[in-house]
Amino acid sequence: MTSMPAPADRLTLSPDRLLPADPGTRAIARRLYAAVRDQPIISPHGHVPAQWLADDAPFEDPASLLLSPDHYVFRLLHAQGIPLEQLGVGPGSTPDTDGARHAWRLFCGRWGAFRGTPSRFWMETVLADVFGVADRPSAESADAIYDRIADALGRPDFRPRALMNRFAIDVLATTDDPVDDLSYHAALQQDSGFSHRVVPTFRPDKYLEPARPDFPALMAALAQASAIDTGSYAGYVAALADRRRYFKDHGAVSSDHSHLDVVTLTLDDAEATRIYSDAIAGRVSPQDATALRRHMLVEMARMATEDGLVMTLHPGVHRGHHTETTRRFGPDTGSDIPVGVEFTRGLQPLLDEFGTAQGFHLILFTLDETVFSREIAPLAGFYPSVYAGAPWWFLDAPDAVRRFRAATTETAGFYRTSGFVDDTRAFLSIPARHDMSRRLDAGYLARLVAEHQLEEDEALETALDLVTTVPTTAFKL
Amino acid sequence: MTSMPAPADRLTLSPDRLLPADPGTRAIARRLYAAVRDQPIISPHGHVPAQWLADDAPFEDPASLLLSPDHYVFRLLHAQGIPLEQLGVGPGSTPDTDGARHAWRLFCGRWGAFRGTPSRFWMETVLADVFGVADRPSAESADAIYDRIADALGRPDFRPRALMNRFAIDVLATTDDPVDDLSYHAALQQDSGFSHRVVPTFRPDKYLEPARPDFPALMAALAQASAIDTGSYAGYVAALADRRRYFKDHGAVSSDHSHLDVVTLTLDDAEATRIYSDAIAGRVSPQDATALRRHMLVEMARMATEDGLVMTLHPGVHRGHHTETTRRFGPDTGSDIPVGVEFTRGLQPLLDEFGTAQGFHLILFTLDETVFSREIAPLAGFYPSVYAGAPWWFLDAPDAVRRFRAATTETAGFYRTSGFVDDTRAFLSIPARHDMSRRLDAGYLARLVAEHQLEEDEALETALDLVTTVPTTAFKL
Amino acid sequence: MTSMPAPADRLTLSPDRLLPADPGTRAIARRLYAAVRDQPIISPHGHVPAQWLADDAPFEDPASLLLSPDHYVFRLLHAQGIPLEQLGVGPGSTPDTDGARHAWRLFCGRWGAFRGTPSRFWMETVLADVFGVADRPSAESADAIYDRIADALGRPDFRPRALMNRFAIDVLATTDDPVDDLSYHAALQQDSGFSHRVVPTFRPDKYLEPARPDFPALMAALAQASAIDTGSYAGYVAALADRRRYFKDHGAVSSDHSHLDVVTLTLDDAEATRIYSDAIAGRVSPQDATALRRHMLVEMARMATEDGLVMTLHPGVHRGHHTETTRRFGPDTGSDIPVGVEFTRGLQPLLDEFGTAQGFHLILFTLDETVFSREIAPLAGFYPSVYAGAPWWFLDAPDAVRRFRAATTETAGFYRTSGFVDDTRAFLSIPARHDMSRRLDAGYLARLVAEHQLEEDEALETALDLVTTVPTTAFKL
């Protein structure tokens, strides 16, 4: 990048960040934001390990805390030409202190690459608000910032539980394997010194993909966890239902599903039984495997009408687009790329059967913005069960969030949405992410007030609802 | 929703509603809007029954006037968990007075659900401007508002014709079945005391869908209406052409078409004859039926080049997504959901043949915003016959309208568009809908002026054209 | 259009054109724009013939200079009902002076049709800045403007080289046929009096489409140009590699590819050999031809990793949508219409093999905006080889550019983009196009500053980078 004198090398956070530029609209937005800024955080979907809170061990170092768990950050550094191995990405890749400091320097030296990205907003919030960093990241400031963070991480008030208190996170949902014993969740629930609600989420994706080479092994694990014989389709279904109940008993409020598409269909029992038998024998055809997975999504909905778990769908990702990266660094290492998705036809069989079922909740997320106004909002504006989920992943960013509100509100209003979902493993960024959302909603509502589409008292009530009753209603919290 | 004190329980309409928030841009927008605000309304596509105007009977009650004919309203109430039967939706579902009042209370109690939706804008305009309601709808104000409206409806100045005068609706198009005798239209045209132009629209959808179970019966009805034997394909085509001429003779300016897609193709005569014979014998295959429908769309274009009717296309809706709702309440009861649509390839055969035909007009509407910039604007920016239709249905809302202008103008300008189309059966909301459009176009043009893309005199001329010559040209009025 | 008094019949260009309306944001944008306004132009992809600069002959007349080479302009006039033959469009269609004046009158009389389009912005910039026209185009002013331009074109300072100096175009890329001998480029490079860099671009589309009826003839031409026998697949590949090297030796930095889709796949050698043999024998099946074309795109990538040419993809156009227009006026005469495009799955085979290859650059352009946030930005935010290309063709317009930045920056930042590409044959509009881009980027960055997402020094650096290091890095200049 062009070399220029940097008149401002300080990191300072304006109180007006992300609020609309127009002075009149900003004044309204400030008042709306002030009303929600300090509301406790409800995080009904995310990826923080419960173990972090159960163990309450200090975080290791700045890089393994802030870089290697954040795929938004390391993927863009990778695009800048930095190999993932230098960033501590992937299983077993805990860099030593030198490696961590090196990774941190690489990141700070590429701070400009993050201009205009939400990672920039989240990271500067973490640096300034959590660690009191006052210097803008750069090659020059990297070591000093690293040392300041590393020093803080050694102190008790930077342990996970202390931060959870400081962040005022009332509810935190994790994402868990169906055979997980949820012992960390149980430990937290039984810990009288821990007052936050940490709930598991039932995430059965791989147990619903009969084409996986490890499907027979997964079925064996499922049988062991449920003590139900999964040698037959009926046993498979019963075992899944059993694990859902186990999760529910441990506080779960939702199941989460992320397949390539959301096509649904219903197989008759004989057909499902036949395909399942082929699958555990390792000889299922791709077509049959897909059919059974689509059928099982309907089964999940059926179970939801019985056990009451909210169903969330996160479809439309081509996982592991770059084979070599996945092979070397494992899944979720930056090369997952969205594809188009279709909800209207795909979900019709499921919604035809359960769309108006008492108590059924189905929250739709997407990486394909085209369905916000075309499919998700119209579905959420008719079916009592359907909620428009918050902007997800690449779309959880200021302009995308504005597009989401502009694309869904006119058809579904504010009250058919799920509320904000941070969906992150980057624990320290959770307040920054919710703060971003609150600022953006304040700005959106302020515009409606400035354009006389809403009165300010209504906007204020809506802003508060969006961080209180809206998520607690959608997620049954 | 969170309970809060309501500092403002009044319903007041700002003169600046929907105008841009930036003061400089708003000042320009005010001037542009002032120039078009009181222009007569041209409504070239809608769903008001001609009978309402022919009979000029008083409207029944607030609910059957404002709720049950408005699928935007009742679908969102349904999503809020209110059963449709409590809202008087569906054929034969005229609630008694108690039912109407109950429905009205349900609606007013859920007023917050409509925040940020166009229904909110339209409804508050109707309440305040048409009925002089000064209270914001709520559970508390519901009865008083109901009584005020009910009282007004008993007065002569709230009958359909009086309102049509008050609303200054110069042209109103209805939508009609090809076998309709158009007697109400004829009565209005012969009524010397009625000075408005009420024109029918030829809507042959179901007569072009050979896969329908009732297709043979429809062909019988078509034969009776046209006095042409529809026992053969040639007769079928002749009968349709005859009914188009009948509509034209009764003032029609357009035919309207809404199928799942807009794929077109040309069958040779033998093939069309064969498929048609299968269809009236009740043994047509789905593939053949689709092929004949696609062929008939080209036939409609061919007839349009002969009789001069403008052709409008409204594709891409999955009708009756929720089977049980359709079964119980009939069609158009809220569960119609958009799907993706494709124009470029689909219309190529039709446009290759008639795209530059003298006098042919083809207006394209969509619920799939992705085609605005990708397909519709490029088509309308080349073919003299193609016009970009106004934002339709779910997209007829402030932010969507802004997106429409932003997505089409740069490629097609303002003069390859159709002008505003209200497309509504909610008679009382027609002025509010046109007013919304005028405010939004004023705001869009004002921004172009503020950014020095246009001079204000050009913007003023354009704003006027958009409510005068643009629709009269596109619709041949 | 409605007849109105025209209070302003002058053509004046505000210094604030296209800058944001909000005064605070505009003040920032002015500062950013001031810093880049006079930077030299880098034009790494376009369609100006090198011969114009080599010959330095005077331009003919206003119409053949400003109308007939500009498909944006003549297609919208065609949509207004003006036959292409009256506009001098198509091969061999150089109108005489009377024809040129007539075409110019038609254009000026329809000036209103261009309101809100980028053609309006470009044309008024050319008229005012290049020719000093002070009257707004209209039927009345047409002749005077024509005469002013025609007069200027006769003067030495309006010859191509003089204009290139005046426009400060440092680098200009042309687009060339693989068998072109590039003699004009060679002449320019050897001309000590010509200090600009004019580089060819290798555009092999038709040589990669085995289904073309003229494919055998094209192979013969390729053989002649390369002196390599193209009678076999191996020879075909070798000849293409040879021509790429020839282009590279003549200064080329990139190859450009525009097919209907960007699906890629790898054939084994035997299969490629078989299909190629069928193709030169004129008996290739459509499926095989498509497969070979998709395979050859991967071959182009492989060659790029060897010769270092940057690869640019411009997919998703249905060429010659109106057969009769293409037949009468040739290709590129206005009826090319976009279709949807898919990158994630289509490019996976290519990127799986070369996505992280050292030095490989792949720049993705699109006419389908939906892929900006869904596919292009996520790809460019992971693969070091992938760059998000500037908004292309219909999308090279103010609001579309803003949507592009809003859709890509949050995922890919500014530094994974290609910089602006004017892609034009309208030589005189090149400065206007780059100026538009600079104004829009200044406005976008100013908003980020106004919303406290960036500090102004960072925005200033970014604005400068976007017209200097960003294009030189992406295009290896």
From TrEMBL, chains A, B, C:
Molecular-function GO term, any one: glucuronate isomerase activity
Catalytic activity: D-glucuronate = D-fructuronate
A Gene Ontology BP annotation from the UniProt entry: D-glucuronate catabolic process
Entry's EC annotation: 5.3.1.12
Matches recorded under InterPro entries: Metal_Hydrolase, Uronate_isomerase
Keywords: Isomerase
Protein name: Uronate isomerase
UniProt keyword Isomerase present: yes
NCBIfam families the UniProt entry points to: PRK02925.1
Family assignment from sequence similarity: Belongs to the metallo-dependent hydrolases superfamily. Uronate isomerase family.
Highest taxon above the source species: Bacteria
Pathway: Carbohydrate metabolism; pentose and glucuronate interconversion
